[in-house]
Amino acid sequence: MTTTQPKQEQTQREFPPGFLWGAATASYQIEGAADEDGRTPSIWDTFSRTPDKVAKGDTGDVACDHYHRYKDDVAMMAALGLDAYRFSVAWPRVQPGGSGPANQRGLDFYRRLVDELLARDIEPWVTLYHWDLPQGVEDRGGWVARDTAARFADYAAMVHDALGDRVRRWTTLNEPWVAAFLGYGSGIHAPGRTEPANAVAAAHHLLLGHGLAAQRLGVPVGITLNTNSIYPATDLPGDLDAARRIDGLLNRIFMDPLLKGTYPIDVRGDLAGVSDLGFIRDGDLETIHQPLEFLGINYYTTQVVAAPDPQESALPDRTWPGSGDVRFVGRGAPVTAMGWEIHPAGLTDTLRRIATDYPAVDLYITENGAAFDDEIGPDGRVDDPQRTAYYDAHLRACHDAIAAGVPLKGYFAWSLLDNFEWAEGYAKRFGIVYVDYPTQARIPKASARFYSDVITRNGLA
């Protein structure tokens, strides 16, 4: 008697051989163990304890308890078939207070994590800074202070000395735009300062820290930017200028110094009423403009913008120094639980623009994903068809970019786990794995099974 095997779906869109498939997390969002083994507070510990800053008063004290459950989490990564895992190191865990000698107990955690990943044939991708600045460094001025860039380079060298024999891929910073403009401009992220001029200084010092760290490590490094396409609402001059201004403050203010060694002239002009840019010293741009092994792209959505409304008298948005009167109007597309419009074609546009406008550098999608309101079903499963559709559409957008000649080399889903979503606390779930916080049980969602199949076939059906 013979049996008929089910016919496997044909792979319609295959990715290039060697394309890297991974998932990503960040230290404060998942580790927990906030006061164990010598770790001291970060700005996020302080911020999350400040009334009305984080939804429901949530903190990262326990989060996903990854600090104690990392072996099980790595086993789950292996079961999904991940090639790589992108995680961040907590600065206050390995250098308490942000100064002085290394805390070996903190470094030992990352040594154990890296060893566990390598034992499972999963490549570790280390991000040195994902926003959890030691509170002691913030007390001395934070990223507004030039000295923080030098302190960051010292810390980066400390981590590289401990892990450099086993880790090949290094990312200096994650999303410096968020750290600078949401942390020091609008204040909706830690440290919660509302100082637009100092936000611009923080952006520069973050980039300077990247360059100094790259010099100290002495190996090719990458950096991750949250970048996307900015579209004008119409072809009218005012809307076109609004798009130019926001593109300058989101994209070009970081990409130009990193990849061209200069700040855009028009952005300098837009900021003239906010800052004299006196914090930029001779030699800074040469330091920032270090050779990049790769550029990481975090993509979630795009923006449609319009000229200021002369009838509006609202206070300018401190998130956008010098351009806080620009209106964000949207396109009326479906949105995620974060209220972010879903626009996969914008990812293709973004990748093609970077490949066209900037010197050739390998690109990786270091974050891409969506929050939806997930629930455990009666059968104990978590079905998330909206997230699965989001991933499918955005992976197709990546494939389109590769077909157009973009040097895209890999993709990291955000996030491996549901986690502490910054100012949203635990109210928003981005994971492909559901975390039941009271029990810390992990339940791979339908999107995890979809992604695992993509990895297995190196493509899309």
UniProtKB/TrEMBL annotation:
Gene3D superfamilies: Glycosidases (3.20.20.80)
Name of a matching Pfam family: Glyco_hydro_1
Annotated PROSITE patterns: GLYCOSYL_HYDROL_F1_1, GLYCOSYL_HYDROL_F1_2
Gene Ontology MF terms in the entry: beta-glucosidase activity
Signal peptide annotation: none
One of the protein's GO biological processes: cellulose catabolic process
Catalytic residue list: E175, E367
EC number: 3.2.1.21
Amino-acid positions noted as binding substrate in the UniProt annotation, renumbered to this chain: Q29, H130, N174, Y300, W414, E421, W422
Keywords attached to this entry: Carbohydrate metabolism, Cellulose degradation, Glycosidase, Hydrolase, Polysaccharide degradation
Reactions the enzyme catalyzes: Hydrolysis of terminal, non-reducing beta-D-glucosyl residues with release of beta-D-glucose
GO cellular component, one term: cytosol
InterPro entries cross-referenced by the UniProt entry: GH, GH_1_N_CS, Glyco_hydro_1, Glyco_hydro_1_AS, Glyco_hydro_1_beta-glucosidase
Bilayer-spanning residue ranges: none
Similarity-based family: Belongs to the glycosyl hydrolase 1 family.
Name the UniProt record assigns to this protein: Beta-glucosidase
Naturally occurring in which organism (per UniProt): Virgisporangium aliadipatigenens
